[in-house]
Specification:
Blueprint: H1 9-20, H2 24-37, E1 42-48, E2 54-59, H3 99-106, E3 108-114, E4 121-127, E5 133-140, E6 144-150, H4 157-184, E7 189-195, E8 201-206, H5 213-221, E9 229-237, H6 248-254, E10 263-271, E11 285-289, E12 292-293, H7 297-308, E13 318-323, E14 329-330, E15 341-342, H8 345-362
Parallel strand pairs: 1-7, 11-13
Antiparallel strand pairs: 1-2, 2-6, 3-4, 3-6, 4-5, 7-8, 9-10, 10-13, 11-12, 14-15
Bound molecules: adenosine-5'-diphosphate and magnesium ion.
The site of magnesium ion has 5 residues, from helix 2.
Length: 373
């Protein structure tokens, strides 16, 4: 008798969903990214009981068309990508059509949405665990979309228990991630609040629709943060094929027809390495690739190493956005899209260190960094 059999569909869905939505941070990341992709200029994130009871993300983006209600939460249904080739020119955060379907499988989930043409009326969408639309009803709503995630992991007892045990730490991790989205998103007003069961609602932080990242940083971390910062504006040409021992991927990259793909720019803000100066500046470090927040441990290490050679007593504030051609990195590495693979990272790190030394050496330390006007 055959012992190898397919796993039943519902269980497969639950197993896969658990890889996309791994924790509180992934819920917020997916929902905020959807709001930005929908062109929102205002995003409000509301936590109830640190996110344990509910996470709500409300935006004023385009809203959802009635024609899409049936498929919006089905697995691999997306408005952002249709073939694998599109991935190399991706301009949106999302592309796999997995977030909403995973949230249906792992939480009590609903959406309220309204388009500009819908007037003051919106539609509430409710779903089955499978992502099938269960029903719709008319509700009062402003233009945009609100996604409500209640009782995250209620049907995965081990994960739910772990979430309850670690919720304070998880909540702080989420705030750090939301800080990064708020700082990098110019022209978008962010507001993040938390309602504890018996306490009052507290605003964790908020930004105005600032035209630049510097003002976003001032809103999020306080204006004093800016005192110790200098602009980061590094540009270098990379020709990985010329290096001895260059990897095959580096060679492939360097032979691409698009000559622009070899120019790398790193823009943002960093603490001046002057001992004692940045006491008011939190040692926050945020990294982005084309404005996509991500963890880049090797890049972080390179920044910190160079900084430490000038100032061993402090850790720098870093906001570094690496501007790369879209085919010079891969976001499709892990289901939660947190890991980004940079092609020929070694060459990039070497060039980065050289450029940073030049920046720190060349910077006239007696001139204070321009403050907000
Ligand atoms: P992906 O972002 O990879 O496309 P999701 O499951 O996150 O997958 O979302 C599925 C689709 O739902 C999106 O492609 C988009 O068309 C729509 N959508 C999700 N969130 C919003 C939102 N806040 N506003 C408008 N449309 C949205
Ligand atoms: Mg998405």
């Amino acid at each position: 008798m055959a012992t190898i059999k397919p796993i039943e569909g519902r269980s497969v869905h639950q197993i896969q969903s658990g890889q996309v939505i791994v924790d509180l941070q992934s819920v917020c990341k997916e929902l905020v990214e959807n709001s930005i992709d929908a062109g929102a200029t205002s995003i409000e994130v509301r936590f109830k009981n640190n996110g344990l009871d509910a996470i709500e993300v409300q935006d004023n983006g385009a809203g959802i068309s009635p024609e899409d209600y049936d498929t919006i939460a089905l697995k691999h249904y997306t408005s952002k990508l249709s073939t694998y080739d599109d991935l190399s020119s991706l301009q949106t955060f999302g592309f796999r059509g997995e977030a909403l379907s995973s949230l249906c499988a792992l939480s009590k989930f609903h959406i309220v949405t309204a388009r500009a043409s819908d007037g003051p009326k919106g539609t509430k969408l409710e779903f089955e665990q499978s992502g099938q639309l269960r029903g719709t009803s008319v509700v009062a709503a402003k233009q945009g979309t609100t996604v409500v995630v209640e009782s995250l992991f209620y049907n995965l007892p081990v994960r739910r228990k772990e979430l309850e045990k670690t919720i304070k730490r998880e909540y702080n991790k989420v705030l750090a991630l939301l800080n990064a989205y708020a700082c990098v998103s110019t022209g978008v007003k962010f507001s993040v609040s938390n309602q504890l069961p018996k306490g009052k609602k507290t605003i964790a932080f908020s930004t105005n629709s600032n035209p630049n990242t510097k003002e976003n940083i001032a809103n999020v971390f306080g204006a004093k943060t800016l005192v110790a910062l200098i602009p980061l504006n590094l540009t270098f040409e990379m020709d990985p094929s010329n290096r001895p021992g260059a990897t095959q991927s580096a060679r492939n990259w360097s032979t691409q027809e698009d000559a622009g793909s070899r120019t790398v720019a790193i823009v943002g803000h960093i603490s001046r390495p002057v001992v004692g100066e940045g006491r008011q500046t939190p040692d926050k470090q945020m990294f982005f690739v084309n404005s996509r927040p991500c963890t880049l441990p090797q890049v972080a290490k390179a920044f910190n190493e160079v900084y430490k050679s000038y100032n061993i007593t402090q850790s720098p504030f870093i906001f570094a956005d690496i501007k790369l051609d879209t085919n010079a990195y891969d976001v499709n590495v892990s289901p939660d899209k947190r890991t980004i693979l940079l092609h020929d990272q070694t060459t990039l790190l070497e060039s980065l260190k050289e450029a940073l030394i030049e920046l720190f050496e060349g910077h006239d330390q007696s001139v204070p960094h321009a403050q907000l006007q």
